[in-house]
Amino acid sequence: MDLQRLMSLTRQAIDKYNMIEPGDHIAVGISGGKDSLTLLYALHGLQRFYPKPFSLSAITVDLGLGNLDLEPVKNLCDNLSIPYSILSTEIGNILFESRKETNPCSLCAKMRKGALNEEAKKLGCNKIAYAHHKEDLIETMLMSLIYEGRFFSFSPITYLDRMDLTVIRPIIYVPEADVIGFQRKYQLPVCKNPCPVDGHTKREYVKLLTKQLEQENPGVKSRFFHAIIEGQIPGWPAKANK
Question: Are 57 and 27 in contact, with CB atoms under 8 Å apart?
Fold first, then answer.
């Protein structure tokens, strides 16, 4: 996938759900993985000609697990002229040393998001962009069905009233295969995830299950995606008439 295709799919989601308004200052959460770096490229590309002017800042929440070399990400942000902040935390130590969590993902996500929100507010941002792609939307829905017994997936845009921040997910129309292709084509400086449970989570199980379902029932992922988009899930915003 080239940059033009990426920006087209990103703009489609942004326009459909009115994710950006003039004067927005958007914090992009950067994990160092392919998804967040692709999102950064997409928003930087749109920034040059989008009719509603907005500014960007990039933020990485460092969990303190070690072995996370963010220098290539810093260089990328410098090349794109995007301010970049690295927030050092003890989240990893709390999860794996102090609490010795065996299923740390939910608590880790909550703590990371809290730290990211606070840093975004300090920087004067009013929105935060998460790099959830099309498969993330589908996998979240399946996890909800399997483990919670309800039809649900995260919203394209969510207002956090306690923080006075709005979360947006601009690449929900971008398939993961295209993200992988974009990362390879543009040689994005992906950082290895230092988390000791990476690849051994419920989400990883559902990811493999989704791939199997697609192999056995071609087109099922597209049908899942359509069901989510048109499913009138509580809390989802109305789509713009465009």
Answer: yes
